[in-house]
């Protein structure tokens, strides 16, 4: 599970106040109803009610399942709560599953990436202005924070096969299915206007991060490195200085802001230094979604090992100071050369201890947040930027269920939703045959995907 994909516990508690709409744009776009999947399950113990969503619109994309389908053939509901059937926005017209074209990544950036990892989306920048101009560095970080991370829900099934080679046998892992669904469009209340609940913040004083250091530490005076200049002592006449309380200066002023950290980075005389922006997703209940998806796969009769992960791409932007060593460390062929010649045994420790890292900037994209309710017992409630976990599951359950039976590998998109919707008017056998699942219909009832 990716570190950048925070569970629901990281959602902020927001007290309603005047002007709160200025900080978060909660406008919603046009909506699309979710499928009415009906299965007699008990409701979840978690309370995940949606707020501020329009009522059901008749004649939408999804309808109730026909009576011809048996209940045992259908994927389970996330919850029995009728509120879970509320509509929710999906993608803009003509959009596909990939968010790169929809969101125009790198649009409006001050610089182009010097290097970008194709598998993770990790971007690296190197420019003299980023090392010497704090205002330019701050503007660059703020522009990069406007681009969202790309969270995915990945469902993977594997089993072990025993293969005989001559007089020996060996076990190999076989992938039965590996499907992903991108969550990026659901981080926007209106993807056309890019209205979202994003927040650019810096590390708290008690948070252990790299603050221009090699290792992660807390701020000076908060359990980090001691610093005589970071604390102030207030004495009064007639009071023994030994009994005077010493208060860290940073505690009085709060944690440094982005502008202050940019100044510290540019003022650092380190030969090798980096400034990192992390993009995270907050307020998504991974555990509840994973439990429902695992149950969905088990209901297909699958007997292999099911893994539900939440990888995040485009989760980091890193600025390197311009120097020959940093230019070399970004060359792919040179890295492979150090691996093949085993020189990384010497180069990796040298680079690790020589590089001073500033990992203090975080762009949080909230899937949901807690709103404090002063009335009653003073508890809070969750509200969602676009859809709740129940709505997302009800929207994608049939498409994922069909992809699992079809032994698909890849990322599902809006076309899979349309195909799943089209199959609702067919019986199970017809839908299975039309979706390329005819070979797995028997396994659906008797089990499939077990170890050999």
End-to-end distance: 28 Å
Please state the structural category. alpha+beta
In total, the number of domains comes to 1
Instruction: Please identify the oligomeric state.
Output: single chain
User: Could you list the spans in which at least 5 consecutive residues all have pLDDT below 50?
Assistant: 7-11, 13-74, 78-103, 226-251, 435-442
**Sheet bearing the most strands, described?**
7 strands, mixed
| Strand segment tally | 19
Q: Helix tally?
A: 14
Task: Summarize the structure in words.
By secondary structure, the protein is an alpha+beta fold. It has one domain (8-225, 249-446). It has helices at residues 20-23, 99-103, 128-132, 134-145, 249-253, 258-267, 286-298, 324-329, 332-340, 344-354, 389-405, 414-422, 428-434, 441-446; strands at residues 13-14, 115-116, 123-126, 150-165, 168-182, 188-190, 195-196, 198-202, 211-213, 231-233, 246-248, 272-282, 305-309, 312-313, 316-320, 355-366, 368-372, 380-384, 409-412. α7 runs parallel beside α11.
In short:
This protein has 452 residues and is of the alpha+beta class.
Defining traits:
14 helices; single chain; 452 residues; alpha+beta; seven-stranded mixed beta sheet; transmembrane helix; membrane; five-stranded mixed beta sheet; globular; transmembrane
Topology record:
Blueprint: E1 13-14, H1 20-23, H2 99-103, E2 115-116, E3 123-126, H3 128-132, H4 134-145, E4 150-165, E5 168-182, E6 188-190, E7 195-196, E8 198-202, E9 211-213, E10 231-233, E11 246-248, H5 249-253, H6 258-267, E12 272-282, H7 286-298, E13 305-309, E14 312-313, E15 316-320, H8 324-329, H9 332-340, H10 344-354, E16 355-366, E17 368-372, E18 380-384, H11 389-405, E19 409-412, H12 414-422, H13 428-434, H14 441-446
Parallel strand pairs: 1-17, 3-15, 5-19, 12-16
Antiparallel strand pairs: 2-3, 4-5, 4-13, 4-14, 6-7, 8-16, 9-16, 10-11, 12-15, 17-18
Helix pairs in contact: 4-6, 7-11, 11-12
